[in-house]
Amino acid sequence: MSEACGLQAGGVIRLAIVVSRFNRAVTDSLLEGAMQAVAKYGVVAGDDDVYSVPGAFELPLVALAAARCPEYDAVVCLGAVIRGETPHFEYVCGQAAAGIRDASLSTGKPIAFGVLTTDDLSQALARAGGAVGNKGYEAVVTAIETLEVLARLQVPGISA
After folding, report:
1. What is the pLDDT of residue 154?
2. Is 15 helix (H, G, I), strand (E, B) or coil?
3. How many helices (H) and strands (E) does the chain have?
4. Which residue of 18, 45, 95, 109 could cross-link 67, Cys pair, CB 3.0 to 4.6 Å?
5. Over the chain (160 residues), what is each successive 10-residue block's mean pLDDT?
6. d(C-alpha 143, C-alpha 63), whole Å
């Protein structure tokens, strides 16, 4: 992947970032990692491009809306769902993943899945800037790499 990528007129990639407020100690760190990747790779995603939603279940709808905006080349979704004692975890994880996938397929724009699905808080923190890295950073890289592949394919109706 190149250090500075560019697919829009003017050579700049613009990202929307949709982040869940639930488990904020984790999602704030994911957002911090995402913004570090934005700075490193020279893409555009400022404070006005960050959309906060209550939880992971709300990510797909706002990601779809952002992907429909012509000024965004891709969307990054960030969230953290931590297993509890009820089946709520499975419902939220499955529906968030399916909704994000559907939004990407229906718009033809990359929507990176930076949603942690962990058994406990320590696993989530390890993936939000801890020992396992920062999945928010990785989600931005994923969006950029997917845009680069789509640009090479040049398929009508698929954004790049």
Report:
1. 84
2. strand
3. 5, 6
4. 109
5. 44 94 98 98 96 98 98 98 91 96 97 97 97 97 96 79
6. 13
Long-range interactions of 96-104: CB distance < 8 A, separation 24+: 96/56, 96/57, 96/59, 96/60, 98/60, 99/59, 99/60, 99/61, 99/63, 99/64, 100/59, 100/60, 100/63, 102/60, 102/64, 103/60, 103/63, 103/64, 103/67, 103/75, 104/63, 104/67, 104/75
Residue 67 lies in a domain: yes
- Domains of the chain: total: 1
pLDDT given at position 49: 98
How far is residue 125 from each of residues 27, 58, 131, measured CA to CA in Å?
A: 9, 22, 8
The domain that contains 97 carries what CATH number?
Answer: 3.40.50.960
pTM: 0.91
Active site residues: 88
Distance from C-alpha of 45 to C-alpha of 153, rounded to nearest angstrom: 25
